[in-house]
Amino acid sequence: MLKGKTAVITGSTSGIGLGIAEALAAKGADIMLNGFGEADAIAALTKGIADRFGVKVGYDGADMSKPDQIKGLIDHATAELGRVDILVNNAGIQFTAPVDEFPAERWDAVIAINLSAVFHGIHHVLPQMKQRGWGRIINIASAHGLVASVNKSAYVAAKHGVIGLSKVVALENAETGITSNSICPGWVLTPLVQKQIDALAERKGISVEEAARDLLGEKQPSKKFVTPDQLGELAVFLSSDAASNMTGAALTMDGGWTAQ
Ligand code: NAD
């Protein structure tokens, strides 16, 4: 279904980004991975996906907090894969503290990676998408793009910003064949969330399993983690022709979190 298409997925060496990269590759898209990790592990990942799905898989280690490296990522993907048809803005980090104790440099880092990187990626990829009259921009926001939680000022601000930016891109390109949408996951069990579970277990003096149950119980009515595979399938749908008239949307997959 995506044979002949190419996708750049930021932050795809782990978690949700990796799930989306694999789902797009499974449908035949050539992909460019990005994110941090050990060189050997990344080489194995790249080869594994290429062998399993028979697609081209590249890797670029751009640091998404650096605008010039984001341009480099789009240029590299265009040179190696021939074009960029689908951009998945996924890389993200978390930091938690009350606003009055939130270190300014952590605020800057979260905003740079979770929000400004989304702007820079879109800015650099749009001209070629416009030229071809086809493009898919998929922004991984969060339930925290729609509602707030304590101690997550930078993350919540960035994710609300991503949804707003995504809507502007949708409107500016409504007649161009390019769509721009946000996906808003609830809790997904990835390294980013495991850190929060471990911290909760330590703070409450409970087991990691109990902490995971508490975390889900507090916000996610389904009491089940969303999976990277499920989010991958949503990204596949957004990349399909069936989704050509879906733009400017913020799609939840959050076990009912934001229905409350
Ligand atoms: P993760 O920590 O498993 O993966 C993050 C990825 O981003 C990794 O590949 C990492 O190497 C990469 N990355 C981090 N900083 C980077 C940088 N400066 N430059 C390039 N790559 C960088 O996290 P995840 O849970 O898979 O999160 C992915 C996205 O999904 C994030 O935007 C996050 O906010 C969002 N999200 C996650 C959850 C969840 O419950 N896990 C829920 C809602 C939204």
Automatic annotation (TrEMBL):
- Tree of life domain: Bacteria
Q: Which SUPFAM superfamilies match?
A: NAD(P)-binding Rossmann-fold domains
Q: Which GO terms describe its biological process?
A: monocarboxylic acid metabolic process
Q: Which GO terms describe its molecular function?
A: 3-hydroxybutyrate dehydrogenase activity
Q: Which family does it belong to?
A: Belongs to the short-chain dehydrogenases/reductases (SDR) family.
Any idea what this protein is called?
3-hydroxybutyrate dehydrogenase
Organism from which the protein derives: Skermanella stibiiresistens SB22
